[in-house]
Specification:
The complex is a heterodimer of chains A (320) and B (232). Chain A has 320 residues and is mainly alpha-helical. Chain A has 14 helices and four strands. Chain A has one domain: Orthogonal Bundle (ABC transporter involved in vitamin B12 uptake, BtuC), CATH 1.10.3470. Chain A is globular. Chain B is globular. In chain B, a hairpin with a 2-residue loop joins strand 4 and strand 5. Chain B has 232 residues and is α/β, with parallel strands linked by helices. Classes of the chains: A mainly alpha (320), B alpha/beta (232). Chain A: One of its GO terms (molecular function) is branched-chain amino acid transmembrane transporter activity.
Chain lengths: 320, 232
């Protein structure tokens, strides 16, 4: 990538982050809340994109990593009275450990078998959250009261239940993840992941430890997904088994496909559009998922590379 | 001279068929060796066992004095064995330079190392072209450049001249001579002209076994080889 491409990349992503920050001041309450939620969920999508988009690992079990972060943060807050910072750390750690263990086993398989194995592990995780209903309260979920969600900062304590604070916390996490992803995909490691996706055997015969690279990709992907889950728990004060269900494994796949797999901005664009698509459809009709299904079929037929992927293929070749 | 590669009693079967059957084989440092034989003789399986693409069933492989029999493929590559694919296996969406950079990137080589390799194979003027857009002969050269980008001690070429024009073959012969100055070359080849021009020694395989081994002159005059392979 040339120097001018680097400048354009920095300008574009900087402008997006600045634009999102500015929206805090102008958006009406409802959309302000939606955007905070979309930013957190697109962190999940960005994590998924590392595995699926860049490394070509089609996982159907990422809900378990999101939920590992969610419960990893919520359980210690709810049951042990932990404060927010160590709970966030526990959420990240839970996601990392789970991702490494699952990847060690699942990466022994390829393609469809990998999809099935990740799906099975995720279902086990989901059923486990239901089995321990005493602690997790199952589908009903844990509600973290306002008092449990105060964040200690150098200047004093702030409540994450406040809409503005929540927005800025979501924005900070989103920005951080965007920068990490940008850095990652342009690094040697990221380029090796893409090459492994394209031709695994070739990379092995160039001396790359393909298994170790995929394992590292899954670890990063799982940890970012868990960061989204942990943030969701403390920002929106709720952790339920629903987030560990198959639906939350399919959603990041759809978000990434819609926005554009293996693009840095695709996960955000996909999450945003899908959120409003479901939101709008459900205000007109009860079977709103039908509308989503039709939208996806049209997308696959006419924009198989997703929105940002199509823009990159047609006009902006330099997009990371 | 010390043996760079020393293979003892190597065996591999698929189902009931012994694709490689108790093969003993040594390769001296600095040699250009050709491996020939009819289709299905076990040549590709044999080199796949050496570079680790196919697991060894029986026997040992010593490379540079070390036992590499159980090493995974990527570690053998790091030890200095490079393999170029029979069916061109390059990254069509990347530029020629990026393809070769992937070979050196793991060891921290930068773009200038890749350009030096491209110059060596005569592709430097196409460095920024998309590899998938190149003519077939040039794609074969990218494949070889990726092997060279690993700076191997042993370069294994699996039917490198297949599908090349006469002029391209002539250029290829000159290139291999140049490469062989500091790299040992093991070549699977069907084109007898290339074999006779390049190889210092030739190994002939048939039905998973080594039928004959010797200088081009000896192989040409070997009655068994003539019967089995040259069809004379």
């Amino acid at each position: 990538m040339s120097g001018s491409d680097t400048t354009r990349t920095i300008l574009l992503h900087g402008a997006l982050l600045a634009g999102l920050a500015a929206l805090d001041f102008v958006l009406p309450d409802y959309h302000h809340g939606v955007l905070a939620r979309v930013m957190v969920l697109s962190v999940f999508a960005m994590g998924y994109n590392i595995a699926f988009g860049y490394t070509g690992l089609l996982s159907l079990g990422h809900a378990m990593f999101f939920a590992a972060g969610l419960y990893g943060a919520a359980l210690p807050i709810y049951h042990l009275g932990w404060s927010v910072w160590p709970s966030l750390g526990a959420g990240l750690l839970a996601g990392l450990v789970l991702a490494v263990i699952v990847a060690c086993l699942a990466l022994r398989t390829l393609g469809v078998a990998f999809m099935i194995v990740t799906l099975m592990f995720s279902q086990v995780f989901y059923l486990t959250t239901l089995y321990f209903t005493t602690y997790t309260r199952g589908e009903e979920g844990l509600v973290l009261q306002q008092g449990m969600r105060t964040l200690a900062l150098p200047g004093g304590h702030i409540s994450l239940a406040n809409a503005d604070v929540r927005f800025w916390a979501a924005w900070t996490l989103f920005s951080l993840t965007l920068v990490i992803t940008l850095f990652l995909v342009r690094s040697r490691f990221g380029r090796a992941l893409v090459a492994i996706r394209e031709n695994e055997e070739r990379m092995r015969m160039l001396g790359y430890d393909v298994f170790a690279s995929k394992l590292a990709a899954m670890a990063v992907s799982g940890t970012i997904s868990a960061a989204a889950g942990a943030a969701y728990a403390v920002l929106f004060g709720y952790a339920g088994s629903g987030f560990a269900s198959i639906q939350y494994s399919i959603l990041p796949l759809l978000w990434v496909l819609l926005g554009g797999a293996a693009t840095v901005l695709g996960p955000f664009v996909g999450t945003l559009i899908m959120f409003y698509l479901i939101d709008t459809a459900s205000s007109y009709t009860t079977p709103h998922m039908l509308v989503v299904g039709v939208a996806l079929i049209l997308l696959i037929l006419y924009f198989p590379k997703g929105i940002v992927g199509t823009i990159r293929a047609k006009w902006l070749r330099w997009l990371p | 001279m010390t043996a760079l590669l020393d293979v003892r009693n190597l065996t591999r079967s698929f189902g009931g068929i012994k694709a490689v059957d108790s093969v003993n084989f040594t390769l001296q440092q600095g040699e250009i060796r050709a491996l020939i034989g009819p289709n299905g003789a076990g040549k590709t399986t044999f080199v796949s066992l050496i570079c680790g693409r196919v697991p060894v069933e029986q026997g040992t492989i010593l490379f540079n004095g070390k036992d590499i029999t159980r090493l995974p493929a990527h570690k053998r590559v790091r030890a200095g064995i490079a393999y170029t694919f029979q069916i061109t296996s390059i990254f069509a969406n990347l530029t020629v330079r990026e393809n070769v950079e992937l070979a050196g990137m793991r060891e921290g080589h930068d773009g200038s190392a890749a350009l030096a390799v491209l110059k060596q194979v005569g592709l430097d003027h196409l460095a920024e072209q998309k590899a998938g857009d190149l003519a077939y002969g040039h794609q074969r050269l990218v494949e070889i450049a990726m092997g060279l980008g690993l700076h191997p001690r042993l370069l294994i070429l699996d039917e490198p001249t297949q599908g090349l024009s006469e002029e391209e073959v002539a250029a290829f012969i000159a290139l291999i001579r140049e490469i062989a100055r500091n790299t040992t070359v093991l070549l699977i080849e069907h084109n007898m002209h290339v074999v006779m021009e390049l190889a210092q020694r030739i190994t002939v395989m048939q039905q998973g076994r080594i039928l004959a081994e010797g200088t081009p002159e000896e192989i040409r005059n070997d009655a068994d080889v003539q019967r089995a392979y040259l069809g004379a």
